[in-house]
Amino acid sequence: MPKKKKKVKKSINKTKLKYILKLFIITIIVTLLLEFCYVIFKSIHESVSTIAKEFNERIVLTQEGYIIVGSSNFKYSTLQSKSGKYEKPRMAIYDDNDHLQMEIKYKSGYNGLFMDGLENEDGYLAVGFYQRTSREYKKEETEGLIVKYDKNGNINWERKYKNLTNTKYNKVITVQDGYIVVGSSTYASIETGKEKAGALLLKYDKNGKMIWKEYYGDNKTGSFNDVIETSDGYIVVGSKDASTGIVAQYNKNGLFQWKKEYENIGNNGLSRVKRQGNNLIFIGSFKQSEYVQNRTNTALLVLANLEGKMIKYTQYGQEKNISQWNDLVIYKNNIYVVGVSSYINEKLSKEKITHYNNKAIYAQYDMNLKLIENKEEDKNKTYQYTSIMNKKNKLYITGYTNAKCDLEHADGKNYVSFVTRLPLK
Question: What are the tens digits of pLDDT across the range 325-335?
Fold first, then answer.
């Protein structure tokens, strides 16, 4: 009898074990199913609820038309798969008749932005920054990015670079044996250190190999925003720190030659530089006041000699506005500049929350910096010009807005990009 009791007991234990195992498996399956349903629901919800975000940063002339670089979440894209979530670096190629021929989305990583691009003999090149890992995405850190595409939009090669927390590439030019890139590599606001960083100047060869790199300025705020090539090197403009703009020259090997610093320059520093004969013309903004509620930054246009020494300057803007020039072109001894002016929206601002509107600004000057004409576009929301080029005696101005206006999908919520065309006189 005792033996039979043991068999019954063993049988009961096996039954319980099977039951527990079965329950465990069912629980796992149900959990995985719920996870899957949640992911699908979240994906659908994000694709439906996320507003469109498309930002044009730079417009560049090509042999057969032009390219525009920036970023997009491709919610309303017709040539790329729609995502609606991450803002991916974007390049759009247009023909001579302003028709969109190809739209390139950089698919790796999370959020990112192409800041500049160019056409070369066998394709296109774009530079900017992106968040490569989920850690960078969560902490809002960035890596510098340069990508070489062929004529069909396929990647020939790509290179990333990160020194400090926030590394960005702002501008690229072609030189005889490669590419010159400028940008920045800085700490986030809460980080400190003694590493050499700040404004960044790099050279790549035609195959994407980094030849040399140089830093200048403050590793919290330094940045080079633009570069031009001269017979004996490169002239760059940008910022040394949060209030000091800089014009500097490096030789062909990246060795520092000279600098000129400008005080009370806006946080973004000097943004663009052009050479005209024996002079330099550069733009940015000038701090008139530091007080938040009464702060005034005027858009700044400077005429200087080839050593960066100021000859004369002019300012544009209104009291309590934060204005800056973002880009310029020179045509028939006239200077055309575009930018943005931010001002406080008194109706929407509350006691502890200040709400700003951004209006687009445009102006034409002669070579003596005399204002010829100006234009402002105010939509009571964000409406700003980011870049300008001359194409067949017509100005092409690009930017973006979230205002309700006569652009497709411009419903007052979505951020949409645009190109405005103005005839040159």
Answer: 999 999 999 99
- In this structure, which CATH number among 2.40.128, 3.10.620, 1.10.1660, 3.30.450 belongs to the domain 271-425? 2.40.128
Q: Which residues pair with 120 in a beta bridge?
A: 123
Q: What residues are paired with 93 via a beta bridge?
A: 67, 102
Is the dihedral angle over the CA atoms 410, 413, 414, 420 positive or is it negative? Answer: positive
Q: Give me the phi and psi of 186, to 5 degrees please.
A: -135, 165
Tokens matching residue 205: 């060869």
Tens digits of residue pLDDT in 75-108 = 988 777 776 789 999 999 999 999 999 999 999 9
Check residue 355 and report its DSSP letter. Answer: -
Annotate 104-132 with DSSP letters as a single string: EE--SSSSEEEEEEEEETTEEEEEEEE--
Residue 352 has pLDDT above 90, yes or no: no
**How does pLDDT run across 177-192, given as a tens digit for each residue?**
999 999 999 887 655 6
Tell me how far apart the alpha carbons of residues 271 and 365 are, in angstroms, rounded to a whole number: 18
Torsion, Cα of 131, 136, 140, 144 (10° steps): -40
Gap between the Cα atoms of 116 and 125, Å rounded: 9
Residue 154 CA, chain-centre distance (Å), reads 22
Alpha-carbon span 397 to 420, nearest angstrom: 5
> How is residue 348 written in tokens?
């929407």
Question: Which H or E run includes 17?
Answer: helix 2-49
Residue type, 176: Q
Taking alpha carbons only, the member of 266, 374, 261 closest to residue 321 is 266
CA dist 320 and 322 (Å) reads 7
Describe the chain by its helix, strand, coil percentages, rounded to 5.
Answer: 15, 55, 30
Q: Is 231 helix (H, G, I), strand (E, B) or coil?
A: coil
Q: Are 340 and 326 in contact (CB under 8 A)?
A: yes
Tokens 């939509």: give the residue: 379
